[in-house]
Amino acid sequence: MRWIRDRAGLDRRRLRDGTLAVLVPVVACCTALVGLTVWVGAGRAGSPARIRVTEGRVLLPSVGVPETAAFFRIANEGGSADTLLRITARDVPGPVTLSRHRMKPGNAAYRSALDSVSVPPGEGLAMSPTGVDLTVPVPSKAWHTGDRVPFTLEFRRGGPVRVLAAVVRPGTVALR
Fold it and tell me: If you ran DSSP here, which 8-state letter would residue 20 be given?
């Protein structure tokens, strides 16, 4: 009789231990599944970067100055980050460079070249004279206010985006 009781207690303990051993990974999988379902339901799962470039502006160059600045508003309406890698402009005598303005103590400003700039998902980049902008060599043929300058912005995931930028007078680009 004692042997039967010991055997029954051992069987119950094995059953309990076996159930717990199975229950832990099942609960972990269910938790992960719920988390992924919420992520997919929010529209973030696997959606690629969707880049939109608007409000292109090129500052009218001053006489005798070899370069000017250009600004764009870039929006990433997708679910993945993207990176602006390179900018080209037709009819421009040299490379267009991506740069950032920074302030030093005493209100001195300096410009540093950038290799790339990230555009997070669901956010954007508003280029401005006090932040990220483009340095554009001035062509020999003079630009006039209202002229359109073709640019190609190349993104790591979004590929090339072709856009026209309007030539505007300095002071008409809003500081952001």
Answer: H
Query: Rounded distance, CA 14 to CA 80, Å?
Result: 48
Task: Name the phi and psi angles at 75, rounded to 5.
Answer: -120, 135
* DSSP β-bridge partners for residue 10: none
- Whether the Cβ atoms of residue 163 and residue 72 lie closer than 8 Å to each other: yes
Chain-centroid distance, C-alpha 44: 15
Question: What confidence score (pLDDT) does residue 129 get?
Answer: 85
What secondary structure letter does DSSP report for 45? S
Beta strand 159-168 with 82-89 is: unpaired
pLDDT band at 126 (very low <50, low <70, confident <90, very high): very high
> For the chain, what percentages of helix, strand and coil (3-state, to nearest 5) are there?
25, 40, 35
- What SS3 state is found at 128? coil
Give me the pLDDT at residue 4, please.
58
Distance CA 82, CA 49 (A): 6
What is the CB neighbour count within 10 angstroms for residue 105?
5
- Model pLDDT for residues 109-122, shown as the tens digit of each residue: 666 788 999 999 98
Distance (Å, rounded) from C-alpha 1 to C-alpha 116?
80
What single-letter amino acid sits at 69? A
